[in-house]
């Protein structure tokens, strides 16, 4: 019989294998000015920007870190860490989406 700690570790191991990258999410009030600072003054490179018609998010990288710049019109909050996973590598029980009422807005 397997104990709870063993089951938890096995589940974490499967989640770890699905982890593909991490991004530090940085909120900003002016995306263009923030991108200019990181790219032209600090030497970061632009990896992605979206949506194409009115960009509000940019992914940049440099110096061993990936930043996700998110333009906000509200209060600027402290940076957060965002993990990107390969959903197909997740165990079926973890891969199922939560009910709509409990989904977060991020």
Helix-strand string: HEHEEEEH
Query: What about the largest sheet?
Result: 5 strands, mixed
Low-confidence stretches: 99-106
The number of helices is 3
Structural class: alpha+beta
CATH class of the domain at 21-91: Alpha Beta
The count of DSSP E runs of length 2 or more, i.e. the number of strands, is: 5
Give the strand content. Answer: 25-35%
Q: For the terminal residues, how far apart are their CA atoms?
A: 39 Å
State the CATH architecture of the domain at 21-91. Roll
Name the strands of the widest sheet in spatial order.
2-3-4-1-5
Which percent range fits the helix content? 25-40%
Mean pLDDT: 82
CATH topology of the domain at 21-91: 2,3-Dihydroxybiphenyl 1,2-Dioxygenase, domain 1
Overall morphology: elongated
Report the C-alpha radius of gyration, rounded: 18 Å
CATH fourth-tier homologous superfamily of the domain at 21-91: 2,3-Dihydroxybiphenyl 1,2-Dioxygenase, domain 1
Give an account of the 3D structure.
It is a single chain. The protein has helices spanning 4-18, 31-41, 92-95, and strands spanning 19-28, 45-50, 57-62, 65-71, 80-85. It has 106 residues and is of the alpha+beta class. It has a domain at 21-91: 2,3-Dihydroxybiphenyl 1,2-Dioxygenase, domain 1, CATH 3.10.180.10. It has a five-stranded mixed beta sheet with strand order 2-3-4-1-5. Mean pLDDT is 82; it is low at 99-106.
List keywords for this structure.
single chain; 106 residues; alpha+beta; 2,3-Dihydroxybiphenyl 1,2-Dioxygenase, domain 1
In short:
By secondary structure, the protein is an alpha+beta fold. The chain contains 3 helices and 5 strands, in the order αβαββββα.
